[in-house]
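Key result, reporting period 2: structure in, sequence out.
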């Protein structure tokens, strides 16, 4: 039971960890420069709260130059005895003037998010209602913020049958 909940939470973290495959785009140099400023190896750690006891976990994230005006990312979080991973891309879409991100995870969750730029911050918000591998309905909410030289992922997983809510905020640094 705990493993299933951690898989769902990990899926939330995975989705949060950068809900990032975007449509073909024609980004300008400023948008491309902003995206490529995040290229590198990132690491973060946090505590999952809302369960029987707080659970510490660590994450790592690698961002690399993709094709055209995209960046690719791959991330992994280690929770108790479970590893969760995500991968995807982020790009700027000239037509909508938004950053777009999509991702997939090893827990079977996928997501698409549109990012809004405000000053030097890009925020991606994601809300998904999906079933976990056990068939239980799970609501996953995530906010990813790219701010200058940092990445922060906040997520929340709510198990609809029990009402239990698990949350974490993961600050990443290079």
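The corresponding designed sequence is given below.
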């Amino acid at each position: 039971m705990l493993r299933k909940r951690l898989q769902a939470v990990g899926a939330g973290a995975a989705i949060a960890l950068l809900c990032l495959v975007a449509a073909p785009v024609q980004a300008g140099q400023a948008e491309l420069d902003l995206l490529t400023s995040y290229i590198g190896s990132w690491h973060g750690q946090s505590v999952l709260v809302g369960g029987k006891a707080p659970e510490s976990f660590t994450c790592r994230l690698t961002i690399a130059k993709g094709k055209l005006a995209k960046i690719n990312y791959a991330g992994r979080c280690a929770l108790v005895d479970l590893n969760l991973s995500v991968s995807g891309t982020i790009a700027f879409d000239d037509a909508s003037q938004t950053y777009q991100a999509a991702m997939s995870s090893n827990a079977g969750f996928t997501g698409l998010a549109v990012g809004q730029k405000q000053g030097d911050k890009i925020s991606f918000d994601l809300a998904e209602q999906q079933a976990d591998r056990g068939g239980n309905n799970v609501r996953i909410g995530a906010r990813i913020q790219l701010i200058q030289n940092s990445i922060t992922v906040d997520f929340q997983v709510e198990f609809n049958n029990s009402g239990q809510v698990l949350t974490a905020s993961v600050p990443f640094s290079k």
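The two ends are 35 Å apart (CA to CA). The first strand starts at residue 40 and ends at 48. This case is discussed further under Risks and Mitigation.
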